[in-house]
Design brief:
Length: about 425
Amino acid sequence: MSRVVIIGRPNVGKSSLFNRIVGRRKAIVEDVPGVTRDVIEAKAEWKGKEFVLVDTGGLVPETRDEILEKVKETIRREVDRADVVLFVVSTKDGVTPLDREIARLLYPHKEKVIIVANKTDTDRDEELAIEFYELGYEKLFPVSAVHGRGVGELLDEVVNRLREDKAELSYEGVKISFVGRPNVGKSSLLNALLREERVIVSPVAGTTRDIVEVPFTWKGEKFVLIDTAGVRRPSNVEYGVEFYSVGRTLTAIDTSDIVCLIIDASEGVTRQDKRLGGLVERRYRGCVIVANKMDLCPLSEEEVEELIRKDLFFLDYAPVVFTVATEGKGVEDILRASLLVYRDFSAQHKTSFVNRSVQEIVKGKPIHYRGKEVKVYYAFQEDTKPPTVVVITNYPQAWKENYVRYFLRKLREKLGIKFSPLKLIIKGRE
């Protein structure tokens, strides 16, 4: 598939250009250097030609910062794989020493490179953009990613250089998001599954900021793996990049089929783990609980699971798997468990079967309201993902919390739903 990679120093507008070309706000944009760290991919199209567009972290050639060093490694790998490289600079800043250094790093790939002079908002800016020819590249396009100025001409040049094959980036399959507190090993688990350094991993909490979606196939089954930003307690979240990162994590939960709730086994279930588990339960998402860092935990798997079941009792339907992401141990168990959950999560049952099951449960343990028997006129499965059962009754107000819990437990048994949440809607006959 044809790949177009955007690179440049921090804060020149790479993510703004990415969003402009893709046509939606997929990468986080903030007026702070170094917001993007992981590689963000999306399918783009121009004049009938499809390609994969790749946004990368800001490139700082000389640094001892561990995260930025990993950004450099990631960019080098992406440039090697690219068909076209968009080297983004800023007309507002002019040619900087960092631009010159990056230009030198790109010389071995000179035939792939197009210089994009971003933040060229006016005709006067366009005159200033000419100075970037001194970087030694033939093709230069002044653009304004924010306003769209010049982007069409840039894309004309891009598609002229692309191969004729279709972009093969497919986001079809079971959507699995990796969710948890900062530094519990979400990115390490994703890399272990992919068997490559697809997302940046660092002991520094909060390394992941954007949502990273990666299409993946395992044993013939298609998945979309979603790495998310670590979610701290709300009182600790600062407005700005982290605020938007957390918001996107919550969106990822809502749009996922299955949420892998990652827990640091060496620390046990924390209050924030419980909060995140509550979010998953209230949104009726399928869930796999992943006890990571088992190599650092003095307890056995049985003991760890017992503690998890006690603290996350409301996720009693979620299977528990045990992993050591840094060694790749147990990571495929996440996919096996996810397929079990998805089978129940997407199951559709016949109306006659649902109706009969509901009638049997109510008959086995009747309820009364003001001395009158509560009847169920009709029941059916309204939806899947999650399986949603609607019960039509004469007294909806009689269905108290304790009875609903009992009813759901019995209905799970009747319908054979073991690993998925089950949503119940009680309605009156009117």
